[in-house]
Every structure is written in C-alpha cells, then in structure tokens.
Amino acid sequence: MKTWIVLCMTVLFPHLASAADIQATLQWSQRVELSPSVSGIVQIVNVEVGDMVKKNQVLLSLDSTAYQAKVAASQSEITRLNAEAEEATRELARVQELHDRSVTSTTELDQAKLQQVKNQSLLSEARARLQQNQKTLDDTSLRAPFDAVVVIRQAEPGLTVAAGLQPQMLLTLARSGEMIARIHLTPAQMNNLKISQTIIVSVGGINHSGKIKTLGMEPSKTKEGTVYPVEVLFPSKQILRAGTPAVVKLP
C-alpha cells in the first residue's frame, strides 16, 4: 500500500519526489569595512548597529577645519592668479599691437607670450591643487557605497584616526535587500545544478526565490565524504542576520 502511494505521488508530483531539503547558513551577499583615507578626529557618527542606510548617505564625519582652510587658500590663490593671467593677456595684446606697428621688437613680443603661458600654467596648477584639496575635504566624510545595514560600529566622537598603510576600520556594512544561503553538496548532488539556476530558500518558514551564485570548485572533507560549497543568492525584504539557519530546496 505504501509503495503504491509513493508511486502515485511520483507520477502526480514529480518535483516533490525529487526535491531535497539541504540545511544552509545565511551569509551577507556583500560586506565592506569602511575607513577614511585621511587623518583626523571623529566629529560625528550618524549611525548605530542595525541601521538601514542609503547609498551615498553620510555615516561619519571627521573634523574638517584644517581641510576647509586648504580649500579656501586654494580658492584665494586662483583668484589672484586669474587676475594676473588676465593682465598678462592684456599686456600681450598691447605688445602685439605695437609689434604690428613695428614699434616694439620681436624679443618683447616673445617675452609677453612667455609670460602669458607662464601665468596660464600657474593657474592650471592652482586649479589642480584646489581639486585635490576639495577631494581631501570630501574624504573627511564616510559615505555608504550602496544600500546597506550597519553591522559593526567601532567609532565614537573624539577618536583620532591616522590614515596609513593599515587603515583603521570604523564601520562595517552589509548590502541590504539580499542574502546568500551557503550549503555544502556532494558531487552527485551538484550534477544537475548550474549557475543562475532558480532555487527556493526557506528562512523561518518563508520561501524566497533565489539563484545559484557559485558552485564550488575545491572540496572539503566531512564525515559524509567529499562536499563542495554552493551559494544561493536571494532577495529579501526582511532584515535577516548572517549565521541564521535556512533550508535550500534542491530540485
């Protein structure tokens, strides 16, 4: 009788008969550690662990007084050099006119041209310094590289940050809206799987439609034998945590 029931289920619902539930563990789909590329003192921290943040949102700011001063100095230098460049252009026009009337020599004209080129060069260099100083000023603020959740905060106002060869991690973010279910499969279980194949991931009884992201190439040895890591990427509107157990339903 039991055999007959199983045969009927296999005929009527073949997908149920071949399905296998594999225990999985959730991981972040993308995790980044953030640290400023400039030195300074932490002035404001705008986020707490668990906060959801949007791309380009300011998460943390260093004291930018010194960097603002450099930008202001560069702007003043450009104003001065602009005036000198304009004066050099007017002087060149005047000398050119006199040269055309054979009043001045070619040497004077060449000197006027050289002075104009020199002034334009100095102005270009000053503009480049302003751009660099403005970039440094912008770098005093840490911004979210993508929509994310804050998973670690190691910064408080007053903390001194020294940018160097070993960046000081202040905040850690994980991409929000998607997770990875990590499982381990035997070679036989992987035979019919392929990248981007649709797979169901169940978390807390809620099913999510995911896709296979990676099929591992290097084996691990377990009590059950040789297994390979497989990652299934799935979207989720829920706030899920890394390490949460899940179930991957193999076809």
Low-confidence stretches: 1-18
Helix coverage percent: 25-40%
Question: What is the highest CATH level, the class of the largest domain?
Answer: Mainly Beta
Encode the helix/strand succession as letters: HHEEEEEHHEEEEEHEEEEE
Molecular structure report:
The protein is an alpha+beta fold. It has 3 domains: 87 residues, Efflux pump adaptor protein, beta barrel domain (Elongation Factor Tu (Ef-tu), domain 3); 67 residues, RNA polymerase II/Efflux pump adaptor protein, barrel-sandwich hybrid domain (OB fold (Dihydrolipoamide Acetyltransferase, E2P)); 74 residues, Helix Hairpins (Orthogonal Bundle). The chain is built from 5 helices and 15 strands. The protein has a 6-stranded antiparallel beta barrel with strand order 1-10-14-12-11-15. A hairpin with a 2-residue loop joins strand 13 and strand 14. The protein starts with a helix and ends with a strand.
Question: Notable features of this structure?
Answer:
251 residues; alpha+beta; Elongation Factor Tu (Ef-tu), domain 3; OB fold (Dihydrolipoamide Acetyltransferase, E2P); Helix Hairpins; 6-stranded antiparallel barrel; 4-stranded antiparallel beta sheet; 5 helices; 15 strands; 34% strand; elongated; disordered N terminus
Entry summary:
With 251 residues, this protein is an alpha+beta fold. The protein has helices at residues 2-12, 14-18, 65-100, 106-138, 187-190; strands at 20-28, 31-34, 40-45, 52-53, 58-62, 141-143, 148-153, 160-161, 171-175, 178-185, 198-203, 206-215, 220-222, 225-235, 245-250.
